[in-house]
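Appendix B.2, paired examples.
Example (i):
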Amino acid sequence: MQQQQFDRAAEDLGNAIHLEHVNVTVPDQRLATLFYVAGLGLTRDPYIMVSDTNMWVNVGRSQFHLPSGEPQVLRGHTGLVISGREALLERLASVAKKLEGTRFTFKEHNDYVEAICPWGNRVRCYEPDAARFGRITLGIPYVEFDVPVGTAKAIFAFYPEMMGVPTEMKSGDDTVARAKMGKDQYLQFRETDRPQPDYDGHHVQMYITDFSGPYRKLQQRGLVSQEDNQYQYRFRDIVDLADGRHLFTVEHEVRSATHPMYLRPLINRNPAVTNRTYAHGHEQWDYAMGPDQYEGR
C-alpha cells in the first residue's frame, strides 16, 4: 500500500511565530470602548491594563493595545476576521450616534466591512474563510501598510535576511510584499503614490524563536531603536540592504518565545450574549473553527 505524500514545507513558519498586537494611542478611552468593544464586538482584557490610561482589547489570540495619548493612525489598515456580518453591522450602527463628531464611519463592501475608528484607524472585517485566513473565526490575519512606490521588492528582501522571516510578493503582484508573522498571519506592504503622513509612533509586536540572531544583524546596522528588557527589543526602520536607503518606518516590538506573556490565554466574549439573550455556556467566543466547519488538508 502506497503511503500518502505530504507537502511538509507548507507547514514551515520561519523565525516569526505570532503577530500578537497592534498598538495605537487614543485620546479618549470611552470612545475607544464604544468602537472596539461595543461596535466591533471585541473583548477588553480583564486581567491587564484595566484602569483608564490603557486598554488591551482581545481579538482571538491577538490584541489591540490602546494607551492614552495623542491619537496615532496606522498608515494602512488592520485586517480582522469576525464571524457574523449582519450582527457586526448592527453593532456598528448602534454606536454611530454616540460617535458623532468623530471620524467614525463604516461601509459594507462585497468582500468585507470597513470600519474607521474615531481617530481614523481603518479595520477591514472579513467573514471566516479557512482557505484564505486559516481556521480562525476571530483574529488578526494581517496588518497592511501603505509604502512608497518602488519599495516593496527591497522590503521583500529585508525580512528574510534580517529577521529570518519568509516573504512573498502577493498573488504575483510586485507592488505588495508579505512577511510571514506566524501561522496564517502576515505583515503586508502595499505600494501607493498617495501622500502619506509622517510616522507617529504606532507599533506592531511579533514573537520570534531566533531572538539573538536578528538582534545582532539589526545592531550591526544601527537599527535597534530601543532596549526594553531581557525578552524584548525594538526596531523602526526598514532599509534597502544593498545601499542602506530608508524604505519605511514602523516600530516592531520584538519578543522572544521565552517572554513571560507568550501564549498567555486570552478571553473572547460572545457579543450576541446580553442580559436579554443570556444562554448558559455560550458566553465565550470559539475563535477557531470546530471539526464540523473545517476540512483538514
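Example (ii):
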Amino acid sequence: MSSAKQNAPSTREMERINWLEFGEWVPGKIQTVLLPLGTLEPHGVAPNGTDILAPVAMAREIAPRVNAMIAPVISYGFTGIMDAYPGSFTVPEDAFRNYVRAVLTGLAKNKFKNIILLNGHGGGQTAILSALAQEVGRETNARILVVNWWSYCSDVTLEVFGEDGGHGAENESAYIMAIDSTLVQKKRYKPEMATALPPPNTWTAYPFPSTIMLYKEGQGYPTFDPAKAKKYFAKVNDKIARLIQETIEKWDMAGV
C-alpha cells in the first residue's frame, strides 16, 4: 500500500465505508465529521436541490483538507415561505429539530470530537441549527460548528461578481454551475423571476412571489458565466476549509 493510501481511508463518506475500517480511523486518526444539510425548494433556474447539492459538493471538496469524514446529507429541511412551489418540502419544525438532534447525538456517540454542520438553507433553519449546536454540545461534550456558507462567503460573492447575491441568484447558480452546468437551465431564465427581499417590517408574502430573492435591489441577477462560477466555487471552498481548520486549532489551543 502506498503512503498516500495509508494516510487516508478508502473513502471519507460514512455510507461507503465498512465498520472495520471506520473503527480503525475514528477517533484515532480522524476526529472531525462534516454534516451537510439542505432542503428542497425553488431556486430560479437552478435545481430544487441546490441547498442539498452545494453543501454535499463542498464537503467532498474540503474533507481531505480538514481530515474529516462526511456524514450522509440531511436533505429535508425547514423550508418556509417557498414550500408552495412544485417539488418543495417543509418538514415540521419539531420533527426537523428532533431528527437533527438525534443525528448530532449519534455522531458524537460515534466518537467524533468535531462536528461541522455545512448548512445550505437559510430562513428558520439557521436558528434551529444554532440552538441545537449549543444544546447537543453541552450534552455530549462535542465541539460543534454551524456554517451558513452563502452568508459567510458574502465577501467572496462581492469579490468574484462585483455585487451582492441572493437566493437562487448569481452566487448560488454559479456554485451549482461549477458542480454540473447542465443542472442550471439558462434558457428558462427571465429577469422578472427575481424580486428583492423586502426591508424588515415592510411587507411579507406567502408564498414569496419570486423564486429568485435578491439581497439588494438591482444586484445578483444570474449571468451564467462559467469562468466566474469555477472561480467562485474554488474560493468559497477555500474560505470554508480555512474556517474549519482555524476553529479546530483554536478549540485545541483553548483546551475545550
